[in-house]
Amino acid sequence: MGDIIGHVISKRQEKLLNFIVREYVRTAKPVGSVLVAAQGRLHLSSATIRNEMSDLEQAGYLSHLHTSGGRVPTDKAYRYFVNSLLGDEVNLVLEAEYKNKIKRALDGVPSDPREINKIVARVLSDLSENLVITGISTDDDFFKKGLAGLFEHPEFRETNKVFQLANFFEEFEETFKFIEREFFNTLGMPRGVPVQILIGGESPFKQIQHETIMCAKYGLPGDCVGSLTLVGPTRMDYEKNISLIKYITEELNKLH
């Protein structure tokens, strides 16, 4: 499978890259060849894995931290991983526990679009452990939930990153209009639309070049169109978050 830039990686490298991405997402620790050999189910020697990891690093998919012998995924690796997820949605299965929590949250929900958006922001933030902002396309009323939780991630332990993020979201109302214009103008009507994703340096916002933004639209009562934006570290659980967004927007589209 080739990536969007044109560099083709082998099936073996693809499996290796997917393992490294998932492992780094899970642990936030650089992944070494010994760990891959022991747990990656690739049936390869550590030496072969080291060579493959070196090739992936040269191709821009992995980065080598000075403080560790392990590798970490780059934005390019996350983009490759996300593209493969979106191209093979059959593997995106949301756990029943999350489905039930979403169904309970939306059970008996009022017909007020603003109240629905409050619930969406709360439940999606709680389940994803990321920041979620919801809005209505023709309204300047936004609901933000999960900013404090975002700072719990190890990526945001540096004071300057917290300061940048806090400033960014203080000005989110203006930013949201830009997101509406740049992201959502290609989505069309809310029913059946994909999740729009910007990873790290793909973002036009200089304050959040180390984060991932996920956006989606959904229908609301009164012919309103709701918009949600999820923001988290690039080291987020993409499979879970994409599945959460797709499921909750599908359920919202059933309400009207």
Describe the structure in your own words:
The chain has helices spanning 11-27, 33-39, 46-58, 75-87, 96-106, 113-128, 147-150, 159-170, 172-183, 238-253, and strands spanning 62-64, 71-73, 131-136, 142-145, 196-199, 211-220, 224-233. The chain is an alpha+beta fold and 256 residues long. The protein has a five-stranded antiparallel beta sheet, sandwiched between helices. It has a two-stranded antiparallel sheet with strand order 1-2. Helix 2 (33-39) packs across helix 3 (46-58), helix 5 (96-106) packs parallel to helix 10 (238-253) and helix 6 (113-128) runs antiparallel to helix 10 (238-253). It is globular, with a radius of gyration of 19 Å. It starts with 10 loop residues before the first helix and ends with a helix.
The rounded distance between the terminal residues' Cα atoms is: 40 Å
Q: What is the tally of helical segments?
A: 10
Percentage of residues in strands: 15-25%
What is the N-to-C order of secondary-structure elements (H for helix, E for strand)?
HHHEEHHHEEHHHEEEH
- In terms of quaternary structure, the protein is single chain
Residue ranges: pLDDT <50 for 5 or more in a row?
A: 1-6, 186-193
- Describe the main β-sheet briefly: 5 strands, antiparallel
Within the largest sheet, what's the order of strands? 4-3-7-6-5
Estimated structural class:
alpha+beta
